[in-house]
Structure formats: C-alpha cells, structure tokens
Design a protein that fits this description.
Elements: H1 7-17, H2 23-45, H3 52-59, H4 63-69, H5 73-95, H6 101-118, H7 120-132, H8 141-159, H9 169-189, H10 198-211, H11 215-223
Amino acid sequence: MMSGLGHTPCRSRRETMGKTVTKQARAELTRLLLLDAAAALFYRDGYAATSMVDIAREAGVTKGGLYFHFSSKDEICDEVQSAAVAVLRGHVARTRGSRPHLRRLAGLSRVLMGWLAEDAKVGASFRLAREMGSNDPRFAAFVRAWMGQVRADIAAAHGAGELSPHVRPDMAALLVVVTCVGLESAAASGTIPADTDLASTLSELWRVIEAARPADSAAAEATGT
C-alpha cells in the first residue's frame, strides 16, 4: 500500500526544476519537492526514523536548502498535515450540498481509503497521528479535521432523518472513525494483505449502515424527495 508513495511527484518536480524558471518559482518548487519527500518518508518510515538529512537526500536538495525553507522537522510535519487538510477541504467543498448526507459521508470514507494508497500527505498524516498523536496533539491535526467532518456529516444525517431513531449520532460517528482507522492500521501493520482494496472493504460497512436506515428515508431517496 505504501510502496513508491511520493516518488512520482518528487521526480516530476525535479524535471520541472531542470527547466528555466524564475527564482521565486524555483524556491516554491523546492519547497514542494521537500514536502513531497518528507510526506513519503514519514509515511514509509515514520516520524522518529526520518531525519532532516533523509528528507534533503530524498528530495535531492542540499541540507542548507532544506533549512532555508524549514527550520525543524516539526515544521515540516505541520506543513505536510496542512497540505493533507487542504485535500480534505477540497473534497468537502466539491461535494457540499449533496444529499443524502450518509451517502456523502460514505463517499468521503471511500475517498479517504483511496488517498491512503495514493497520497503520501494523507498517509503520512494518519501515521503521524497513530505514532505521535498521544505525545503531542499537533501530530493529529489532519485526523482531527477529518473526524470533525465525520461528526458534522453524521449530525446532518441525523437532522435529516437518515439515521434510525435507535442509532445514536455520537456512536455512529465513532463507528465510522474506528473502522477507517482500524483499516489503515491493519494495512500498515501487515495484518491484512497489502493489496487489500480498502475502499471496497469499507463499502461493506456502508451496506450495513444503509440497511439500518428508516424505511421512510430510504423511500424518500428512491423517489428523489
């Protein structure tokens, strides 16, 4: 699931760096190259095993060039998570207003599983939270943003009558969070095969949830009301 993450963006940015660009554009490309490299290493090796020298080497940037952009590894962690949050916010903005709310949340959950396989920034943010979040809440910035969106969608679904009256919104949100985190952890640890399609696996959860919806909510969706 994690092999090769971050290398394609790094390579494409290096190719761009080889072209004639302005000094400001070159500085921005270097910064992005460093973030790509840091995300790939944090996701693959974890925070403790990744050094500033490792990041500079992975990006093909001098150590001085690295410190010109980032003063510490923690600062890079913050930037990686900010980039991941931007990915989340972009998806939420594109799907805002869509109904029903549960289906929108199901879509977000499946997209998240895709990001874990394809976007090192999101994968790194999950690993940072898993390994370092109990030591410092700053490492859980992305996960907190994602959990907040889960709770908001569940609350909206509850308000729209999409949840069975027997389902507590806080417990429904917890179920979604625990399932997604559990799948990520199981894939990262090798508990499940590395080629497991996490998005398809998660779809099974949503089949169970949708089966528990009130009959009038299901009927309303079928008629488009």
